[in-house]
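agent> step 3/5: call structure_predict on target 'Phage holin family protein' (Corynebacterium occultum).
agent> reason: downstream docking stage needs a structural representation; sequence fetched in step 2, passing through unchanged.
tool.input:
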Amino acid sequence: MLTGLWNLLVRSVGTAIALWVVTLFVEGVTIATPDTILAGDGSYDRQLVFLAVAAVIVLLNMLVKPVLNLIGLPITIITLGLFALVINAVIFLLAEWISQQLGLGLSIDTFMDAFWGAVIMALVNWLLGPLSGMLSSKRR
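tool.output (status=ok):
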């Protein structure tokens, strides 16, 4: 049980870093700081929002993405894997909708912003993969 929670935390931190990079490079993807103070004096509220949105994305990747990959498998095969990028964008848009329902500040303007945001997020997560793998394996 604790190993699973540790892996979720490690993946959420990596995804939060990737989400921060996305907000730097894609103008249509923004995260607003909440109006109310979440913790302490409010200086860490932005980081907490990034972590919360990242946890939503990680959970969607764990629970919803396999179903979408299975449904989209024929199209993914025909497009030689490029449709997987569209699935990532849909997951990103779904994360925006859920974060809006939870009162978190993720906002995505257009589908293309979601598409490029998902591409950048995948690249950053790929670069951070070895580091998160080391952290996950040390816990075992």
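agent> step 4/5: record observation. The first strand starts at residue 29 and ends at 31.
agent> proceeding.
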